[in-house]
Each structure stands twice: as structure tokens, then as C-alpha cells.
Amino acid sequence: MNIGKEIRNRLSKYEKLGVEKQSNGTELIGKAPHIAPLAYLHSIYKGLNTKEIDRLEQELETEIPADYKKFLQFSNGLHIFNTTFCLDGLRTSYNRTKEIENRLPFSILTTNLYERPKNAKPEHFFIGGYDWGNGSHLYINRNNNKVYRCKENDTKPLNEWNNLNEMILSEIDRLIELHNASGELKVNIEKTTPKSQFMSDKQSFWNRLKKIF
């Protein structure tokens, strides 16, 4: 599967709203004045070369999972519907005043190194997340290559996908359904975060009680 082609096919419907190619290679798709005067719906960042990926791995002090490394070669992170759904990458500057001219992804170092959940295991590699629902994270489990969503400070899975490509494309499709042709949200903002596939401990407890009585 060509993940880059599949992503572009899905986002192409918003090109009629406006497209901008920035000097650092960032592609902005779909002007979104309902969010802010200079806002765009989607951001695809210039892919990383081998040298840049090596640099990122040195900073992470770990190897990037093969699936995510391949994705980074297409796009150094991704922002869908502004920052509703984000995948992280190599951030080369933190100069906020210049970011409008050359937009950058969120840093993949943040969750993997500085704000890593306390119960995260070595095989958990964090790749992004959502801006609603207590800032839930996404991570790849190196042991099975599956992708999981979890809470900000707890790696217990809330959602599971078989692989990275499945997660990216299914989430883009889901979010497109929640927005109109102009990129405005049609539902309550809490629905932009995936509904958990797994029962909480509390729900599980009450279900067991129902079976007993």
C-alpha cells in the first residue's frame, strides 16, 4: 500500500478551499477561516531523508519502528482537521513567530522522552494523538506492530488497530464523516476522539454483577 497516495486521495476534496506550499516543503490543504484567519484544515510536512531519520533516532535514543519510519519518509508528521488528529515528527525549530511561514509538526520527542506515561514499556513507541479527550496518545507496540490509543498518563489500551496504515486511513475516514465540505464540525467535539473499544474496569465490574444476579 502507498500510504502517501491514500492520504492524498482522501484530502484532495479539500483542495478547492485553498492550497499553500510553504518554503520548507509543508503543504497546507483547505483554508479554514472558521478556525482562524490563517488556519488550514490539513498539514502534510516534507518527508525526512535517511540522514534526518538517523538524527531523530539519535535524539530518541531508540530505533523508530519500521512502519513509522516509512511514514516519516512520506511526511514528517501530519495534522488532520487542524490539530484534531496529529502524528508527530522531527521538529527543527521552536520559533513561534516564524511558524506561520514554515509550519512544523509536533515533536515526537515530547511523549517518548519528556512526558512519557509512567507505566509505558520499552516496546511502546509514541507517535501522536488527539487534541480532545484529555489529550489521549497513540503508540505502536513493537512486539506486534499494532497501534493503540491510551490516556495521557496511562498506556492501558482504549482502542486498537492492526497496523499503522489501517489506523491512519480509518481515522481520516472517520473524521471526514464528522465534518462538512468546508471542514466545519457537524457533531459535538467529544466525538472527534474515537469511542473506546474496551470496557473500563468499572463497566466490567457491573457487567459481572449483572451475570451473577
Account of the 3D structure:
The chain has 213 residues and is an alpha+beta fold. It has a single domain (3-212), classed as SMI1/KNR4-like. Helices cover 29% and strands 23% of the residues. It is built from six helices and nine strands, in the order αβββααββαββββαα. Strands 1-2-3-4-5-6-7-8-9 form a nine-stranded antiparallel beta sheet. The longest helix has 14 residues, at 164-177. It is globular and about 45 Å long. Mean pLDDT is 91; it is low at 201-213.
Helix/sheet category: alpha+beta
Radius of gyration: 18 Å
Oligomer: single chain
How much of the sequence is in beta strands?
Answer: 15-25%
How many DSSP helices? 6
pLDDT averaged residue by residue: 91
CATH topology: SMI1/KNR4-like
Tell me roughly what share of residues is in helical segments. Answer: 25-40%
Q: Characterize the biggest β-sheet.
A: 9 strands, antiparallel
Order of helices and strands: HEEEHHEEHEEEEHH
CATH H-tier superfamily: SMI1/KNR4-like
Cross-sheet strand order for the largest sheet: 1-2-3-4-5-6-7-8-9
Give the second-level CATH assignment, the architecture: 3-Layer(aba) Sandwich
Shape category: globular
Terminal CA distance reads 50 Å
Uncertain runs with pLDDT below 50, 5 residues or more? 201-213
Number of domains: 1
CATH class: Alpha Beta
Number of strands: 9
Domain Knr4/Smi1-like: 47-170
Protein name: SMI1/KNR4 family protein
Organism: Winogradskyella bathintestinalis
Pfam families: SMI1_KNR4 (PF09346)
